[in-house]
Amino acid sequence: DVKVTQSSRYLVKRTGEKVFLECVQDMDHENMFWYRQDPGLGLRLIYFSYDVKMKEKGDIPEGYSVSREKKERFSLILESASTNQTSMYLCASSFVQGLTFDYGYTFGSGTRLTVV
Amino acid sequence: GQQVMQIPQYQHVQEGEDFTTYCNSSTTLSNIQWYKQRPGGHPVFLIQLVKSGEVKKQKRLTFQFGEAKKNSSLHITATQTTDVGTYFCAGRIQGAQKLVFGQGTRLTINP
């Protein structure tokens, strides 16, 4: 069964801490994404990557950075955690899209991060 | 920024009633995808529509893509308690690199 695995299901961190969220996929997908999900706001894209060592800003990149050193792994970094970054974080991956065709995203189970 | 709007935000139905959620974009979409997220779970890919006017069915679920490729709908016939969850549409704006997700419609069902 293909999988996107996120390292932690629940995480509690203190304000100002540097936080690493890890995501690993075993499907040889080129594309990887980080979203945050908040009630009433749906899924908002933070960063995405189409290839190793490559990254693109999404809609809400402020306060975040990412790292993709290997194809299967995409890390989200909160440089200095703040309470407004308390959220559910979802990692996703997919094969590279065609001109009009996208492959469905496979999501991880999510990490619920609480910053106190 | 470019958005995909989804309505309604919430829908509560009696078991056995039908349910529909709508997705609208101000610009033409290359394709539209639909996802289901069960309570406490993560989004799961259901289907993709690519062609203008396309209709696809999965058992009691019917998916439509508008003729102008700016809107889409998901219709569930005779809902069951297993249909509970949040349904998201996601569209790729023509010329853009990534999908844009709608805000989702949360479906609850009274058994």
| Distance separating the two termini of chain B | 40 Å
What would the principal axes of the Cα set say about the shape of chain A? globular
Strand content of chain A: over 45%
Q: Biggest sheet of chain B, in brief?
A: 6 strands, mixed
* Low-confidence sequence ranges of chain A: none
Most extensive interface = A-B, 27 and 24 residues
What coarse outline of chain B follows from CA principal-axis ratios? Answer: globular
Assembly classification: heterodimer
> Over the alpha carbons, how many angstroms does the gyration radius of chain B reach?
13 Å
The span between the termini of chain A is: 36 Å
Describe this entry's structure for a reader.
The complex is a heterodimer of chains A (116) and B (111). Chain A has 116 residues and is mainly beta. In chain A, 0% of the residues lie in helices and 51% in strands. Chain A is built from no helices and 12 strands. The mean pLDDT of chain A is 93. Chain B has no helices and 11 strands. Chain B has strands at residues 4-7, 10-14, 19-25, 29-37, 44-49, 55-58, 61-65, 71-76, 85-93, 99-101, 105-110. In chain B, the strands form 2 sheets. In chain B, strands 2, 4, 5, 9, 10 and 11 form a 6-stranded mixed beta sheet that branches. In chain B, strands 1-3-8-7-6 form a 5-stranded antiparallel beta sheet, with no helix packed on it. With 111 residues, chain B is mostly beta strands. In chain B, 0% of the residues lie in helices and 58% in strands. The interface between A and B is medium-sized, with 27 and 24 residues.
Defining key terms:
heterodimer; A: 116 residues; mainly beta; globular; B: 111 residues; 6-stranded mixed sheet; 11 strands
